[in-house]
Amino acid sequence: MHKDPFAWLVVSMILIHSEVQLIIPSFPELGNFFAVSDYRVSLFVTSNMLGFCLGSPFYGVLCDKWGIRRCYLFGSSVFLIGCLGCFLVTTYDLFCVFRFVQGIGAAVAGVVGFSQASKAGDEQKVAFRLGVLNGVVTFALAGGPVLGNILQSYFGAVGNLTCILCFAVINLILIWRVLPADDTSNLLQQQQQQQGWNGYLQCLRNPVFMLSILTKDLAVSAYLIYFSWSAFVLVDQWGMSSYEYGVVQFLIVVSYSVVTLFAGRLWTRFGPGSYILVSLSAWLVAWICASQVVEPVTEIFAANFWSIVCYSVGGALAVQFLFITAFMGVEGYKSQASAVAAVSRFSFPALALALWGRVYPPSWLGVRMALAVFATFASLGLLCVLKLRGSQHVSGKPFVPDPTFEKS
Predict the structure, then answer these.
(1) CB 381, CB 215: distance < 8 Å
(2) What is the dihedral of CA 222, 225, 231, 237, to 10 degrees?
(3) Ramachandran category for residue 393: left, alpha or beta (phi over 0 → left; psi -120 to 50 → alpha)
(4) Concatenated DSSP letters for 86-135?
(5) Is there a single domain that holds both residue 286 and residue 365?
(6) 295 and 325 fall within a common domain
């Protein structure tokens, strides 16, 4: 019987990616518990991201050699070990080690999820599934601190660590029960066709893929800067209540997620040219709103809200186009391409955030400049990708369905 694992992969990605941001509200309490400085507390995120970036390339190869089910069960087991370790340890060094293990295990979700979405068959189906995954990852990353704040308020850091551990257990049971076994005959054929570690060299040599991925992460960088600084700007500087802050963040995330879900249909209906024009227009409106010099807090908030919403709409359209374009020319090494995209998705915006923080302190001026600078460079990259895409006739290249995915 035909079973499509995509829906369960979506649920798994929500459970796993939530851990990245869920624990952040507990950092002050953990810092006091371990008696370490704020800088050393920030290494909880660094160690987790390092594990994610180092684990992704291995899953790109293991996915082809072991198949989806075995690879995902292995990664989910590693993730559970990391979560259990973080829950039990009482020393700072061991906590960082198990955060690193968490990141290694969590990397499997993005690699397998985006790899299988890109093998779905026709272009419209691929566009829809990539849109769903992009929206899900964004929702999980942005919604994690909201849930974390609630748990921290009532149960403290123990509540957040318990929730993450429960997510890991549920995820492993879910994958064990519902993810179908790989077809061994097709798996052998797939192993013979795949590039292995050479697939990563193919990714680096593919200009359309690399430019699409880097441009996408340029667009996401300003979005990450806003979310990282929003609590400081909206709550500490502007005096917004926690409830109002939560509503604003929710509306911004929803605007991004909803546009992402329907972006594939818009692309199919209007074509790449008109689609990109809408994205660039939304970024232009965002820049105009952000550049307004206003004084009253209510007007500042309005400028902030509409600029971020417009940037989210333009970014959702751009990211969808760039993701689909990136995966259209990577036949034979899509698992490796997914691993490269996963590493870049977390490392590039985090590096941009760190560098931008050295230029501007957390402030609305810093957010405004980030919107202007990153949107400008992302727009240039978007136009270059559109030109390369047309010159290589990528738009006319049909997708080749993956037999392993279809039969699983």
Answers:
(1) yes
(2) -80
(3) left
(4) HHH--SHHHHHHHHHHHHHHHHHHHHHHHHHHTTSSSHHHHHHHHHHHHH
(5) yes
(6) yes
CA pair distance 360, 353, nearest whole angstrom: 10
Distances (CA, A) of 181 to 4, 27, 62, 66: 12, 40, 15, 11
Q: Kindly state whether residue 126 falls inside one of the protein's structural domains.
A: no
Domain that holds residue 299: 206-392
Instruction: Report the helix count and the strand count for the chain, using DSSP H and E.
Output: 15, 0
Question: Tens digit of pLDDT for each residue in 199-235?
Answer: 778 888 888 888 988 898 888 888 777 776 766 677 6
228 in the same domain as 166: no
How many domains in the chain? 2
Residues 214 and 266 occupy one common structural domain: yes
Instruction: State pTM to two decimals.
Output: 0.72
List the one residue out of 320, 299, 326, 315 whose CA is nearest residue 379: 315
What is the 8-class DSSP label of residue 2? -
| Of the residues 194, 225, 252, the one at which a domain ends | 194
In terms of domains, do 233 and 299 share one?
A: yes
Sign of CA dihedral 402, 131, 12, 195: positive
Name residue 77's amino acid.
S
Residues 170 and 251 in one domain: no
Helix segments in 242-363, DSSP class H:
242-290, 297-327, 334-359
Return the CATH number at 10: 1.20.1250.20
Q: What is the pLDDT of residue 68?
A: 80
Residues 177 and 34 both lie in one domain: yes
Contact 37, 130 (CB under 8 A): no
Which of 100, 127, 106 has its CA nearest to residue 13?
106
Give domain status of residue 284, yes or no: yes
Q: Give the integer Cα–Cα distance in Å for 130 and 139.
A: 14
* Closest residue by Cα to residue 85 from 101, 98, 100, 102: 98
342-379 pLDDT tens trace: 788 777 877 887 788 778 777 777 878 888 888 888 88
Q: Do residue 225 and residue 98 come from a single domain?
A: no
